[in-house]
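ping. complex inputs:
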Amino acid sequence: MRIRVVIPSITKEYKALGLEQYSPSARPGTEISVTLLDQGPASIESRYDETVATPDIVRKVVEAEKDGVDAVIIDCMADPGLDAAREMVSIPVVGPAETAMHFAAMLSHRFSVVTVLDRLAPLFDRHAAKMGLVERLASVRAVNIPVLELGDTERVVKALIEQSAKAVRVDGAHLIVFGCTGMVGLAGDVKKGLEDQGILDVPVIDPAILAVKIAEALVDTGLSHSKRTYPHPPEKEIVGY
Amino acid sequence: MKIRVVDPVITKAAEARSLEELSPVARPDTELSAVCVDKGPASIESTYEAALAAPHVVAKIVEAEKDGVDAVISNCMDDPGVEAAREMVSIPVIGPCETSMHIAAMLGHRFSVIGVLEADDRPFHDHARKAGLEGKLASVRAVNIPVLELKDRNRAVSALVEQSVKAVREDGAHVIIFGCTGMAGMAREVEEGLKSRGITDVPVIDPAILAFKIAEALADMGLSHSKRTYPTPPKKETVGY
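pong. complex structure:
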């Protein structure tokens, strides 16, 4: 099967990096391809970034379906363009935030999201409200490291462990969800860091990897979003797209 | 990887049926096994029967973990024993109802569950409420065919199509979930039936198959329930178990 990861960023280095980070989670027989945006922001850290990234994300998802891809992942915890893209295509479009928060609710009583910046806390409150999972969200915490600096893995892991431990001890989290897909691949290190601090019973969800596994499962079962929920937009004049 | 299906009934034929239904969708590296419970009802069509089955489901799940199984499914849409079993083991324990409702909430605005009997209305509303997804539950309908008669496949499919059409047209469902794992393998036919009635935009979730694919996905990632949410019960005298 073929899965396309749409990285909602114009940052060229993310193409090779995305492939490198996503490929290990794919099972044999799954081919991952990665595309960046032609227009939009370098990273998504605000409502504005999300808004200006969305039109090109949708275009890339439409392109993926035309390329015969089986499922698409929008590689950002804002799930930018998720609902709009679903209106335009029939193949599964997987949002890492939506997926991770539903699985967190299945696997735990309450979960915390540990994201990049404090300013993103309302984003996850909104996600939870939309999904009906408000009572399951214990807290949103931030490592206060911008997306473009997440390459400094050592610093990021340390900050993730610190904030995750606080989420567990202070906020009552039973499970941790990474709040940025740029934190991909760090769940094992963070889980170990929590264990070193005596927290042995808290799973850590890496939403980027979960998104790949769920995309595979949806393709396997032939399931996709309901086109009754996401019907194709009416035909009309649209300028600029 | 090893996945075990626990059929929470004493009807031995369920083991062979589970293997027959799920083997075709198993990945090449998945080793599937199925076991019935030693004590309990012939089928589950009430909260009473689910309560009688649950202790024996838990025993089989504890046994599965000892056998080195990677993930277990309690193969019934009442998710009998799922939470109790999670307290007793660390491997993922999948409830088809919980899983289907969360995935349905991701794929569509509102979903309906088509159960076996009218009495299923209360438990499915309870499940949705507990998951935080009650606002997404359009309706619960029933085919009015007892579980043990579902093997009359033509009758079951025809009744499922009829009730699914009503769920879509009268109740506003955008996704259909089968309300009994005994309906496994019928989703394609029901989708075809919906299409022949002009409903081309409503996915049908087969919870038995979905639960199995999600079990594989969780085992792949080494992701399981939070033991902080499901801690091991305190040691004490327990007679009879």
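Chain A has a mean pLDDT of 96.
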